[in-house]
C-alpha cells in the first residue's frame, strides 16, 4: 500500500481528497501548509506527495525547491487551480513529476498517481512482447532490441505507463515535452508515426489511435 501525503490548505478539499484516496487503496497523511509538508516529508517520508500550489506562506513551488535542495527525491504530483502553461512548466521544471489542474476527475487522478509511482519504482514496463527498462534505457520487442531516440523513448514510456488507458494528446505533450508546445498537438502525431515504424512493425499492433482524443497502447482485444 503506497503512502501519500496530501497537502492542501482548504480543510474540506483536503479531507474529501484524503477519504477518496483511502477508499482507492492508499494510506494517506495530510498537511495544511508548505511548512507541514516539508516537515512531514522529512519525518515520515511518503511514497508520493500530492501538492497544492497555492499554500499560505511557503507555496507548493517552494516546497519542491526545498525538497530537491535537501536531496529528497520523493515523487510530487501538483494539484492546483492554476492552469496557466507557465505554471505547469514551472512545476515540472522544478522537479514535479506531474501536474493536474482542478477541477479533476478522481479516477483519472488515481490513474496518474499510480503511473507516477510506477515510474518512481524504476521497474520494467511490459505489454505483450514489448518491454521497456527505464533504468538501463532499453526497449525490446519480441526479444529484439529496438533503438529509439530520447524523445521516442519518453513517448513510449508515457504510453506504457498508462497502458490500457487512452492518453490525450495534450497530456502526452505535458509528460513527454514538458511544456504546452503552443497547443499544437501535431508533434505528437509525428512522433507516434516514428514510434510505430520502430516498435509496431510486427503483429499484433500495440499502438492504437483513439480518433479525436489521443492514443492507447494495449494488446488488441480478441
- Report strand %: 15-25%
Termini gap: 33 Å
Please list the strands of the largest sheet in the order they lie side by side: 2-1-3-4-5
Cα gyration radius (Å): 18 Å
The succession of helices and strands, N to C, reads EHEHEHEHEHEEEEHEHHEE
The average pLDDT value, as a whole number, equals 88
| Helix coverage percent | 40-55%
Largest sheet: 5 strands, parallel
Low-confidence regions? none
Number of strands: 12
- Count of DSSP-assigned helices: 8
Class by alpha and beta content: alpha/beta
Shape: elongated
Structure in words:
The model has no long low-confidence stretch (mean pLDDT 88). This protein has 222 residues and is an alpha/beta fold. It has 8 helices and 12 strands. Helices cover 42% and strands 21% of the residues. Helix 6 (150-161) crosses helix 8 (186-199). The protein has helices at 11-23, 34-43, 60-69, 85-94, 106-121, 150-161, 169-177, 186-199; strands spanning 3-7, 27-31, 48-51, 76-80, 98-101, 125-127, 130-133, 138-141, 144-146, 167-168, 207-210, 214-217. The strands form 3 sheets. It has a 5-stranded parallel β-sheet with strand order 2-1-3-4-5, sandwiched between helices. A 4-stranded antiparallel β-sheet has the order 6-7-8-9, with helices on one face. The chain has a 3-stranded antiparallel β-sheet with strand order 10-12-11.
Amino acid at each position: 500500500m503506497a503512502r501519500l501525503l496530501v497537502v492542501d490548505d482548504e480543510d474540506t478539499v483536503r479531507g474529501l481528497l484524503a477519504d477518496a484516496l483511502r477508499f482507492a487503496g492508499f494510506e494517506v497523511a495530510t498537511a495544511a501548509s508548505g511548512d507541514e509538508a516539508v516537515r512531514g516529508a522529512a519525518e515520515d517520508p511518503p511514497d508520493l506527495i500530492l501538492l497544492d500550489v497555492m499554500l499560505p506562506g511557503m507555496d507548493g513551488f517552494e516546497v519542491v525547491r526545498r525538497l530537491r535542495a535537501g536531496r529528497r527525491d520523493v515523487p510530487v504530483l501538483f494539484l492546483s487551480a492554476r492552469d496557466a502553461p507557465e505554471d505547469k512548466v514551472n512545476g515540472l521544471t522544478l522537479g514535479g513529476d506531474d501536474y493536474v489542474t482542478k477541477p479533476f476527475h478522481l479516477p483519472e487522478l488515481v490513474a496518474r498517481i499510480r503511473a507516477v509511482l510506477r515510474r518512481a519504482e524504476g521497474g520494467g514496463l511490459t505489454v505483450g512482447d514489448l518491454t521497456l527498462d527505464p533504468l538501463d534505457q532499453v526497449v525490446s520487442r519480441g526479444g529484439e532490441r529496438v533503438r529509439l531516440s530520447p524523445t521516442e523513448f519518453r513517448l513510449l514510456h508515457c504510453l506504457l505507463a498508462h497502458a490500457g488507458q487512452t492518453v490525450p494528446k495534450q497530456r502526452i505533450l505535458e509528460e513527454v515535452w514538458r511544456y504546452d508546445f503552443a497547443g499544437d498537438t501535431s508533434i505528437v502525431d509525428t512522433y507516434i508515426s516514428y514510434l510505430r515504424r520502430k516498435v509496431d512493425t510486427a503483429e499484433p499492433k500495440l499502438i492504437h489511435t483513439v480518433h479525436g482524443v489521443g492514443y492507447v497502447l494495449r494488446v488488441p482485444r480478441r
